[in-house]
Each structure stands twice: as C-alpha cells, then as structure tokens.
Amino acid sequence: MPRGPLTSLRRYTPEDAAEFTARARESRALHHPWLSPPTSEEAYAVYAARLRQSPDREGFLVGERAAGGAIAGFVNINNIVLGAFRCGALGYGAFAHAAGRGVMSEAIGLVLEYAFGPLGLHRLEANVQPANARSIALVRRAGFRLEGFSPDFLHIDGAWRDHERWAITAEMLAQRE
After folding, report:
1. pTM reported for the whole predicted model
2. pLDDT, tens digit, for every residue of 7-26?
3. Which of 44, 139, 154, 157 could bond 144 through an S-S bridge, CB–CB 3.0 to 4.6 Å?
C-alpha cells in the first residue's frame, strides 16, 4: 500500500473497529455537521464491509507513521464507474488528534496516485459543503478545481445540504508533478 513520509494507507479491517470508532467519537465536534463516520463497532463493521466488498468503492485508513500507524483519518473513493467515464467520488475525514498537521494532504496525494495509476481512473470529484473551509482548502491544495454548485445534494445531519463540486483529472495531477 502507498506510503509517504507522514502517512501510510491501509485497507479497512475488522481489527480496526475499536480504534476507528473511538477516534470518530473523539472527533464529533470536528466533523459536525460535515460528516458522520461510524461511532459504534457494529456500524463500523457494516461500513468497512461495504468498502471492502463493493466493486464500486475503495477505502483506505490513514495511518500516522510517527505514531506507529495509529489511525489519523480515512479516504474513500465511492461511486466508481469505469468504462468511458472512469470516475469516482472522493470522501475523507481527519480525526481530531491529527487535524491541521498535513497528514490528510499527504494521504489525499497518495490516494490520487493510486486512483490515477493502478485503479485506472481519469477523474475524481469531491463534493464539499460551501462553509467547510478546511475541506475546501484541502482539495484546493491537492490540485482540484471548482466546477460547480449542487443545491440540496446530500442528506447529512438531518437535512439536504448544498455542495460545491471540485474535481481533478489524471492530466491535471500530471501537470502539477
């Protein structure tokens, strides 16, 4: 699995349930109202199994190398469509103890290399709520461009939320390198 100076990526496993859910519970204030990762081991089991077993999803836990691989966050590629489209939707989240330290920037970069390399995608989209400045800064640093606005796009935290649509293509990433 891909590794960088700060992080390494690994697949979700059942053995990660206790640590992941503890980190998710510790990070509720950071995540609210943007996302709701599973906070119980039962919910994690369903979530992780879907990421491991669905052909249209790829999921990665972000391990913090300086902390012996402790889970610092997650990056998932959802709704993967191959053929002429070769696109996926990026979802991600840092856990509170690792937020703001560059861990997720590196992890997103590693996932982009994987998505545009071995996975064979051409395009990745990230849909971000307009008030989520930290997430917008993250995708902007990764080279995504703003492509549009989608009103009432996703049902999150009990309401339909507007999102900005950010995207990057394999060619855009290659031009940055």
Report:
1. 0.93
2. 999 999 999 999 999 999 99
3. 139
